[in-house]
User: Which sequence fits this backbone?
């Protein structure tokens, strides 16, 4: 296996040196003479613990050579790792021009490659937006006249290493992720990374491209959140480090997979109230905390977005399953389902609601008061009997993750075709049929 590495910056030099250390023949490509001269002398072009030792070793062994001649590199390898920069333009847009330059270069070289084994594999390691791999493949097809998946393949393989800990991260990533839709390419990459013990995840190309953005945005969000908490604490004479140390001790709810599954908007008696309280309090002491102060708006946007999706279906009679803020409770306070029902009615839709935990005759106290305030005609909307409920509607919108709703829908008779809008992933394996049509996201 001979590997070309395009770009010898922070990511490229680590990948090139470590793959060469594993015994692969690696050719590094970069237009920058200073970087090339440095590597030729056995010195890394970037500062990073342990990288100099590896570069010096692999250069001496002849496992790594570097050049600006991309044509030579492509003609003498069968895999290319693309590690060029993807910087921001002034307006924030990502500049993918360096990536697409390499596509043109590789396309031109493949066109004239002698003894072509009819297979060349390109791994995009640079962070690039979903859709980049497809465009990349188009450019190569145009420049080479070759056919994707027959003569060459392009795969997304995002890099997760952190500068300062790069060698360790390269050998011990959280997982190796590839967006790859060809079994043959997958097996070659599995073999190439066989020295890495981490889980190997194969997914769709755009999913893999998305992942690095999700990771980095989440990391940035965590830093921003912790620093906003720190600013609030400082203003109130509280030790934020102690607060966050205790916060991260909760591995059950705080630092865990909880609250990270896409679904319907949040509501209930605690989250909206407490986020609003912290936002209000911070504004009243002239503290600008844009992340915290915009959470409620973001949640509201999610309800608006759900409404738009439903309205697009142009169905007149809609059934909502779940009126409480989540399943397993009868708490209606700040329920996003109530907000959705209200907006559907404002948009002149006929709406019926089924919620096992809400019985008109048993409504008391705050729940009754809240429902009367929000949906004054609630007694005409709520339907106790699921059979009657399904008879009345043409589309069902699921807002609570209640397995009973799943059972009810699965056991429906075949009187009419029902559209199902599943906002809570109650039907992860749903397949549209003559009786049901799944619309979702
Ligand atoms: N730096 C990190 O910690 C890190 C971590 C994970 C992912 N990434 C991603 O990896 C990519 C590379 O990041 P980096 O920090 O190594 O960038 P960098 O700017 O340090 O290096 C990019 C290199 O690509 C070279 N280059 C430009 N056009 C070229 C071409 N046509 N052929 C060959 N080489 C070319 C440049 O001369 C430069 O040396 C980016 O998409 C980045 O977002 C970076």
Assistant:
């Amino acid at each position: 296996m001979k590997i070309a590495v395009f770009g010898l910056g922070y990511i490229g030099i680590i990948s090139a040196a470590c793959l060469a250390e594993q015994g692969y023949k690696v050719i590094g490509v970069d237009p920058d003479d200073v970087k090339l001269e440095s590597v030729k002398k056995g010195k890394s072009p970037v500062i990073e613990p342990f990288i100099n030792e590896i570069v010096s070793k692999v250069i001496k062994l002849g496992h790594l050579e570097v050049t600006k001649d991309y044509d030579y590199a492509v003609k003498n390898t069968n895999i290319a790792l693309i590690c060029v920069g993807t910087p921001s333009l002034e307006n924030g847009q990502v500049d993918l021009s360096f990536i697409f330059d390499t596509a043109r270069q590789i396309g031109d070289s493949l066109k004239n490659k002698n003894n072509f084994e009819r297979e060349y594999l390109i791994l995009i390691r640079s962070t690039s937006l979903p859709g980049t791999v497809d465009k990349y493949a188009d450019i190569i097809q145009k420049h080479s006249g070759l056919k994707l998946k027959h003569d060459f393949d392009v795969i997304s393989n995002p890099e997760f290493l952190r500068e300062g800990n790069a060698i360790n991260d390269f050998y011990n990533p959280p997982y190796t992720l590839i967006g790859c839709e060809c079994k043959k390419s997958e097996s070659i990459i599995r073999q190439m990374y066989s020295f890495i013990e981490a889980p190997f995840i194969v997914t769709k190309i755009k999913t893999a491209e998305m992942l690095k953005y999700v990771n980095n945005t989440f990391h940035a969000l965590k830093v921003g959140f912790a620093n906003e908490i720190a600013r609030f604490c400082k203003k109130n004479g509280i030790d934020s480090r102690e607060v966050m140390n205790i916060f991260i001790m909760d591995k059950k709810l705080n630092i865990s997979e909880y609250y990270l599954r896409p679904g319907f908007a949040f509501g209930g008696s605690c989250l909206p109230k407490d986020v609003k309280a912290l936002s209000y309090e911070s504004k009243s002491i002239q503290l600008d905390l844009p992340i915290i102060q915009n959470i409620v708006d973001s949640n509201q946007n999610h309800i608006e977005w759900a409404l738009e999706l439903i309205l697009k279906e142009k169905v007149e009679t809609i059934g909502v399953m779940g009126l409480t803020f989540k399943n397993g409770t009868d708490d209606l306070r700040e329920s996003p389902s109530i907000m959705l029902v209200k907006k559907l009615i404002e948009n002149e839709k006929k709406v019926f609601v089924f919620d096992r935990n809400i019985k008109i005759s048993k409504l008391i106290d705050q729940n009754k008061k809240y429902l009367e305030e929000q949906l004054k005609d609630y007694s005409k909307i709520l339907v106790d009997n699921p059979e009657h409920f399904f008879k009345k509607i043409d589309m069902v919108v699921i807002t609570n993750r209640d397995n009973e709703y799943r059972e009810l829908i699965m056991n429906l008779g075949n009187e009419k075709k029902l559209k199902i809008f599943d906002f809570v992933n109650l039907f992860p394996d749903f397949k549209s049929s003559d009786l049901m049509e799944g619309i979702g996201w």
